[in-house]
Amino acid sequence: MKFAKLALGMLVIGIWLGPSGLYAQRQAIDVSRSSVKIRVFKSGMFSAFAHDHEIQAPIDGGEIDSSANPSVQLRMDARKIRVLDPEISVASRADIQRTMEGAEVLDVEHFPEISYHSIAIVTTGAGHWEVRGNLNMHGKNQPVAVSVSLEGGHYRGSASFKQSHFGITPIRIAGGAIKVKDEVKIEFDIVPAQ
């Protein structure tokens, strides 16, 4: 009889906590299966002569906490970020890479780590959330909201932010006739470790 009462009590607690509370745990991010892409777009009067940039940012580490107080955190090494841009020459890609790593943009020598830490996670539907947190980049810590959905065990989503909020002046060429837009877009696919 005591066992039946204990089992019933645990069932009530499990229902009250919900499925995420019942199986709550901290999980490391599987860095080998997770990815972050950054998209930087062109603008300006002669933007037809320029191109958008696609950048790969490998995740160095982080974790997802699915407890009653959910959270997410991740880290990237700015020195490992790579310009993909397959439609341009190797030499042009190398020039863009140097500019991105240099003092004008990321300044990876002085600011080698990029991190994101959630502050609040709000459910927006079944398997959908808005994650509000702080992005630390280029020596600045700024709020960034992220839309996230769970699809086949992968947390996928996107966010946008302005480079200028992090003290980065978007690159301009020919007096601004060709320039990079201030707003960049991040797309991610995060897989929890098994």
How would you describe this structure to a colleague?
- With 194 residues, the chain is α+β, with helices and mostly antiparallel strands.
- The chain has a single domain (24-190), classed as Beta Barrel (Lipocalin), CATH 2.40.128.
- Helix content is 17%, strand content 47%.
- It has two helices and twelve strands; from the N terminus they run αββββββαββββββ.
- Strands 1, 2, 3, 4, 5, 6, 7, 8, 9, 10, 11 and 12 form a twelve-stranded antiparallel beta sheet that branches.
- A hairpin with a 2-residue loop joins strand 7 (113-125) and strand 8 (128-137).
- It is globular.
- It starts with a helix and ends with a strand.
Domain count: the total is 1
Helix content: 10-25%
CATH architecture classification name:
Beta Barrel
Query: What is the number of strand segments?
Result: 12
Q: What percent of residues are in strands? A: over 45%
- The CATH class name reads Mainly Beta
Average pLDDT metric: 80
How many H/I helices? Answer: 2
What is the fold-level CATH name, i.e. the topology? Lipocalin
Element-level helix/strand string: HEEEEEEHEEEEEE
Compute the CA-based radius of gyration: 21 Å
State the CATH superfamily name.
Answer: Lipid/polyisoprenoid-binding, YceI-like
Distance between the termini: 38 Å
Form type: globular
SS class: alpha+beta
Low-pLDDT stretches are 1-23, 44-49
Q: Biggest sheet, in brief?
A: 12 strands, antiparallel
